[in-house]
Amino acid sequence: MKKINLLVTSLLLVSLANIPASAQVPAPKNAGYEGPNRMNTWSLSINPALTQFYGDLRQYDFKLGPEEKLTGALGVALHKQVTPIFGASLNFWTGNLNGSKQRIYNATFQSKGFLQTSLNVHANLKPLLFGYNKLKRWKWDVYAGYGYIWFNSKAYRLGSNRQTLLISTNTPGSSKTAGEWEKDGSTYTREIVVPVGMAFHYEASPRIDIGLDFTLNHVNSEKLDVTYGGGGAEQYPRQDIWLFRKGDSKQDKWGSVALSLTYKIGKSAVMAKKDAKGNWISDPAKGRYHLRYTNPLDLIPPPYNPTMNDADSLAKLNMPKPVDPRLFTDSDGDGVADLFDKEPNTPANSIVSGGGVALDLQKYVDDILAKNLPKEECEAMFGNIEFDTDKAIIKDPSQQILKQVADLLNLRPNCRVMIVGHTDARASDNYNLQLSKRRVEAAKRFLIRNGMQDPSRIMIEYYGELRPLADNQSVEGMSRNRRVEVRILPMSDLRSSYPAGFRTGRKKETEPGKVAKEPKQKN
Fold first, then answer.
1. DSSP 8-class letter at 314
2. Nearest to residue 220, comparing CAs of 152, 153, 146?
3. Apex CA 455: angle with CA 453 and CA 460, to 5°?
4. What is the DSSP string of 38-99?
């Protein structure tokens, strides 16, 4: 018996002493594991076992004594895995025990149909010693518990073929030690029991585990074999075994070696598999893994840390399509970008619709009067009037256009006019800005003097040379840049089509260090 205790204690001490600090994996905080990646935590085990008694009536530790027979037991355990490391189980045992000793006692005993139940606490050493991914299918538990055993033992004289009964626990006096439990008319003596042991389990399938279970049960009594130390034939007739007298006996024990068959309870059970590279893969989308073999952290996908190549690929994938350059060009200078211009070659100084189609503004006004069209409507129109070099004098063709604009605005009170002044690049920035201002103010005065009834609907902007329409290197291009844009817009459109701070003009090469100022807007 001393050899067995020494062996079990040595195994436990060596196992705990060899646990490396770096290999310890803390249990996750979410002990219930009821988050997005749910796991199965319950299991049921059936343990058929061979049993062995250790006490006063025990001749040998590892072989049968005189008149001894092999005994067995059947255990059932309901297990709850609380974390990947720790768990608990409720255990039930029933079986037989016997033993004998010729020296001193010359007696044999048997205990048929004993019952035992205990609550055990388990610790899984495998992930602590080897990590979660080595020996992935294996589980190595050590455990200890607390419970009760109910037994009815009888001692016989050796050589009598169990015909000479020496003493039995089925006596009124037996209740003095720990109470009694009535079953089938027999008195069962109850004692506290402390089981300790270890178990090795292998995950054979998503539902079934197989393993070996080694248990040593410490009974809080030296009278499981109805014998206490001191020896001699007189101890049995004396019948004082149930008094609080121990003699030189140690506490009785019984051990078991069991084949463990475990059914893992839960929904959609799956188990981890290896990929082509030999790495264990746990995919929570396929089902629920059991906490006995799976670290919940393995179910959390690692954060994606893209490499430079990945980042470059993602940038190219999400890069917007190139903007059509026709969005920024206006070949005919009618104020409508080529991308939307349905007539890209309208004559200079034409009034066009929002689609770039040339309009006869006078006919448009006459139709409104003749056909009595709704005056609440307002259609967007665009046009340019050009100026001579360094002049702010409106030419005759342009005067006719502005008169028609004034007539249209008087007929359509929901329209407003935006006048935007520009110049070519043959002067300083400040001079050109003032020149563009004089041009738009000249156009505004002309509209008012020619009958514009509501001057508040006239808005002006001036940008000097900053927004050229054509290249300033040619005479034709500079002529097109000396212009005032006339835009007829609905009153609801209160924002300028030029974003604040927008610059398209090219700074003069003679003044490379000069920063252009944002022109002021006036109503």
1. H
2. 146
3. 145
4. --B-EEEEEEEEEEEEESSS-S-SSS--TT---EEEEEEEEEEE-SSSEEEEEEEEEEEEEE
DSSP string, 190-237: EEEEEEEEEEEEEE-SSSEEEEEEEEEEEES-S-TTS--TT-STTHHH
Cβ–Cβ contacts within 10 Å for residue 213, how many? 21
Q: How many helices and strands in the chain, by DSSP H and E? A: 9, 19
The DSSP-derived string for 407-430 is: HHHHH-TTEEEEEEE---SSS-HH
Q: Rounded CA gap, 373 and 365, in Å? A: 10
Residue 458 half-sphere exposure toward CB, CA atoms < 13 A: 23
Residue written as tokens 């929570």?
A: 284
Give the pLDDT mean for 493-520.
43
pLDDT tens-digit profile of 262-300? Answer: 999 999 999 999 888 888 988 888 999 999 999 888 888
Spatial neighbors of 163 by CB under 8 A, at least 6 apart, are 156
At 326, phi and psi to the nearest 5? -65, -15
399-445 pLDDT tens trace: 888 888 888 888 888 889 999 999 998 889 999 999 999 999 999 99
Q: HEC states along 117-152? A: EEEEEEEECHHHHHCCCCCCCEEEEEEEEEEEEEEC
Of the listed ranges 7-11, 332-336, 401-405, 450-454, the one predicted with least confidence: 7-11
Give first-to-last CA distance, the chain, whole Å.
108
- pTM beyond 0.70, yes or no: no
**More confident: 261 or 409:** 261
* Distance, C-alpha 160 to centroid of its chain: 72
Q: What is the dihedral of CA 355, 359, 363, 368, to 10 degrees?
A: 20
Which residue, 126, 143, 142, is CA-closest to 134? Answer: 126
